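Homework help board

Subject: predicted structure for assignment chain

Our instructor gave us this sequence and asked us to write out the predicted structure in token form, then describe one feature. I got the tokens but I'm not sure how to describe them. Can anyone check?
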Amino acid sequence: MITFTKELWRYYAGISVLTVLASLTTVVVPLLSGWAIEEIRKGAAASIKHVIILALLLFIMDVLGNILNNINGYYGDQLSAKLNKLLAVRYFEHLLDLPQKFFDTELTGKLTNRLNRSVMQISNFVQAMTNNFMQFIFSTIFALVIVAFYSWPVALMLLSLYPLYIWLTIKSSDTWQSYQKDKNEQYDIANGRFTESIAQVKVIKSFIQEKHELGFFTRHTDKAVQINVPQSKYWHKRDVRRRLLLNVIFLAVYSYIFVTAVHGSISPGVAVALILYAQQIRIPIFTISFLVDSTQRAMADSKDYFDIMSIEPEIADHDGSEPIKLAGTEIVFKDVSFGYDDKHMVLNGLDFTVSQGTKVALVGESGEGKTTITNLLMRLYEPQQGTITIGGTDINTVTQKSLRQQIGVVFQDPALFSGTIRENIAYSNQSASEAEVIAAAKAANAHEFISEFEKSYDTQIGERGLKLSGGQKQRIAIARALLKDAPILILDEATSSLDSRSEVMVQEALERLMHGRTTIIIAHRLSTIQSVDQIITISQGRVDEVGSPHELAKTKGIYAQLLSLQNREPTEKTREQLKEFEIAG
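My token output:
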């Protein structure tokens, strides 16, 4: 753990030094007690001044230990908070670097729980260690009974510690809880966005916003860490006061025991017993089982965290990879084979070419690999065989970031994030100006409905855009792609579930978006397919036919069959057959 978080070595070193110094103050106490006993044994010849000085020295050791332990506790709190942030940010950063394949088999909630469970357990365990929670607790009631047997005044003084200490603790509780509420709010925002980002990691990767998401997460965890500073200072300053009260009471206890023993009311042995019992009462009530349970819990709960951190990304920029320099946007799939596992191949020796500036529709039954083709183009997966080139450049030889900068995407599900409309449109270009955002919205037929909202572009849309209609969400997604202004477009058309007016508005926006771009369309309406330059039909993982809508309408292939189904009388059977090709009937 220390090696994994070596950036925090100053905290580890500082806490170690403070712990040693605090321990030394504890070691001195028995020595001073021994000197006191020797003086007490002299009886009437003993110097009261001497024993009072010894009591004062014990008091000084108590105060010094009090201050050192609280300084140590303060730095322990900061170590815990910084460790929490460091482990969480590294976990999130690592997940964003993992390929899409990893998220296909992982549940978002599971990943989130791993973060919460592992990181919090590790940081809490470290905090417990640094704040001296590994001490044993002796039975306070039993100790008080024994002390009362020998000296009821001493027992009363020790007993008075509890109501006074509890009262002072309650007085400071409200302010501490207020700090905790603010800190929890920041963690809730950060962790909520974490879960949302993992659920929509394809959007992040396609718009190359890994850095933006990591920045959002880091900003809110930073705020929580900043709140932790005054919160911890507040708590430990008041803890010094609480413990100072204990120090004063113990000064009275020690003085009373010593003076009483000098006058012969108690024997030196009883005095030693009273002192030792008083020391035991001060020890926090912890047991060996707590230490064992905490250690085992931290080890078990952090295992999943480190298992994930040890996963090496399967898709990485190769040594010598450079940003792509487009000589054109012609897309060529050559002998491409791919399967999500070794047993079931989705694509088998796929060959096709998308000419620069053309619109190409991929048509095939559900599961034939249409979406897989677009995922391979963005290098969210890598084929087991074959090559994919853009403008003659193999996409495996360039950086992933530069590749995805050249590709705009509109998904079938318009994946939006919580936040404002402006933030969602500008997601593809964080430096976009207000004018550029509005221009993109106008081109996407979104400006009109956005302007009708009370807060216009500053309207909060809720998680995944739940406050917007399907057509509105789709037009926001189109505006986002327009603002990216990439030369290649992947369009997973999603107009089949929209009402007629929304469909018209979205289709107009899509036409503007596709203009002048090399576009690959996974179409869900025959009307869209009929307007493209070229159709590529996929069957059993291979290209079945390639041609214009006019050419393929004359064959007996997949597209001709779809036209035939559309021209028939609508029945449940024809709708089911169209559904197999993900075409709206």
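Reply (TA_rk): Your tokens look well-formed. For the description, you could write something like this. Strands lie at 331-339, 345-354, 359-363, 385-390, 393-394, 407-410, 488-492, 518-522, 534-539, 542-547. That's the kind of observation they're looking for.
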